[in-house]
């Protein structure tokens, strides 16, 4: 069963990023982390007439107590009930387990990310290729990672070290795996920047772009200055066309409901209606701000026509 067939506006990652790259903007890959926060992400995209990607990682599924099917079912339910017509993608973020990838595809995810970046290059290629061979015949796009993107909060990945992507390795990696999108390490990190500040290595990005035909993805979009992100998106030969944003959404949600500690998904669902609406409004506002001031994707849904 591929639930993506329910609506024509549900795209694969490849379909979405081809358009974004052609028209020179990036699509936000938003991690609601809680199923009740899927609605405000989609609402913000619809109101801004922007394409959007809704994602969740394997570690987030585990930490917040959600199954891929629960996440996918809520995504498709909200598309239906909110009458979402802008182009959207349902994406499985950082995942090392092939079992989770298979589960997500079965549930209706239109894109998956295999993260074997901690393995030696040959093993990363072999693992990523295996996922491509499983996903592509099922009409699902594949993102992979080369280099290692550091973290500050261990929600999406579990290493804080960073290893920049080598452009020559990137050429071989994309050629041999057949992936659709490549997450590159060039100075950003998952989570909130506490000590070191984000610095995007534009020369490295340009070198990777010159050698690889696939769409480039920047993880760790939370906290990066807008002008720096614009520079990465607007690179002459085509820059970054997917930017992951997770931590900023959760921080906005928790602040709005007066909490400091993250909740489980069940705790979020159990919030009283008033509090839940406050949280949703904050998430919707944050997504709208990113779409307008960060990604350049506002009013770009029409580029899919």
What topology does this entry show?
Blueprint: H1 13-23, E1 27-30, H2 38-48, E2 52-56, H3 58-64, H4 68-81, E3 88-95, H5 98-107, E4 111-114, H6 121-135, E5 141-146, E6 150-151, H7 167-177, E7 181-184, E8 189-190, H8 202-211, E9 215-218, H9 226-233, E10 240-245, H10 247-256, H11 265-269, H12 273-295
Parallel strand pairs: 1-2, 1-10, 2-3, 3-4, 4-5, 5-7, 6-8, 7-9, 9-10
Helix pairs in contact: 2-12, 4-5, 6-7, 7-8, 10-12
Organism: Paenibacillus taihuensis
Protein name: Fructose-bisphosphate aldolase
Cofactor: Zn(2+)
**Spatial strand arrangement across the major sheet:** 1-2-3-4-5-7-9-10
Poorly predicted ranges:
1-5, 151-161
SSE pattern, N- to C-terminal: HEHEHHEHEHEEHEEHEHEHHH
CATH class: Alpha Beta
Distance, first to last CA: 27 Å
Rg over CA atoms? 18 Å
The CATH topology, please? Answer: TIM Barrel
* General shape: globular
| CATH architecture classification name | Alpha-Beta Barrel
Structural class of the secondary elements? alpha/beta
- CATH superfamily heading: Aldolase class I
The proportion of residues forming helix, as a percent range, comes to: 40-55%
Number of domains: 1
Number of strands: 10
Q: Number of helical segments? A: 12
Query: What portion of the residues fall into strands of 2 or more residues?
Result: 5-15%
**Largest beta-sheet details:** 8 strands, parallel, barrel
Mean of the pLDDT scores? Answer: 90
């Amino acid at each position: 069963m591929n639930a993506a067939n329910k609506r024509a506006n549900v795209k694969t990652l490849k379909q979405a990023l081809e358009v974004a790259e052609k028209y020179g903007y990036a699509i936000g890959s938003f991690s609601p982390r809680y199923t009740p926060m899927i609605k405000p992400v989609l609402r913000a995209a619809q109101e801004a007439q922007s394409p959007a990607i809704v994602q969740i990682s394997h570690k987030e599924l585990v930490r917040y107590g959600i199954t891929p099917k629960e996440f996918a079912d809520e995504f498709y339910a909200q598309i239906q009930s909110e009458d979402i017509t802008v182009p959207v993608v349902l994406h499985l973020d950082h995942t090392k387990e092939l079992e989770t990838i298979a589960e997500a595809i079965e549930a209706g995810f239109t894109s998956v990310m295999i993260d074997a970046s901690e393995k030696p290059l040959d093993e990363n290629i072999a693992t990523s290729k295996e996922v491509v061979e499983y996903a592509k015949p099922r009409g699902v796009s594949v993102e992979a990672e080369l280099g290692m993107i550091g973290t500050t909060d261990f929600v999406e990945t579990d290493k804080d070290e960073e290893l920049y992507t080598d452009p020559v390795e990137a050429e071989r990696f994309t050629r041999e795996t057949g992936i659709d999108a490549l997450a590159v390490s060039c100075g950003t990190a998952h989570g909130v920047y506490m000590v070191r500040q984000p610095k995007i290595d534009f020369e490295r990005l340009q070198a990777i772009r010159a050698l690889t035909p696939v769409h480039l993805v920047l993880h760790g979009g939370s906290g990066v200055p807008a002008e720096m992100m614009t520079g990465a998106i607007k690179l002459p030969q085509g820059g970054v066309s997917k930017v992951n944003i997770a931590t900023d959404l959760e921080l906005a949600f928790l602040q709005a409901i007066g909490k400091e500690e993250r909740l489980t998904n069940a705790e979020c669902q159990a919030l009283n209606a008033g509090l839940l609406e406050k949280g949703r409004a904050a998430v919707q506002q944050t997504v709208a701000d990113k779409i307008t001031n960060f990604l350049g994707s506002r009013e770009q849904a029409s580029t899919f026509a």
